[in-house]
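Protein modeling request. Please complete all fields; requests missing the sequence field cannot be processed.
Requester role: graduate student
Desired output: 3D structure, token encoding
Chains: 1
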Amino acid sequence: MSATILAKGTSEDGLKIKTKGRTDVVVRTITVEPGGSTGWHYHLGKLIAVVQSGTLTRTMADCSVEVATAGQSFVEPDGANHVHIGRNLGTEPVVLYVTYLLPEGAPLSVDAPDPGC
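Delivered output (117 residues):
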């Protein structure tokens, strides 16, 4: 047997994840280049993200800002009332390892309009 740790991050507040019904579990790597963004969006399920490198600045629909640096992790809640955007305001790429817990057949994300932040 062999195993490779792809990313490790620490959650500030602990984790509690619960889903309902059949759930797709998707794992992917996301790279956001300096000056780039994810665009405004939301998720139909929860996700757990680990910042492998760089600094991700997330702006929420209420215009609050959360910053996550390499070695940190965070959970994004589900639903259209959790619109957000992730930006790379730094000089090195942001690399994220993200596990999505989505209702079966749901898209990874849903585009949303800028709420005016």
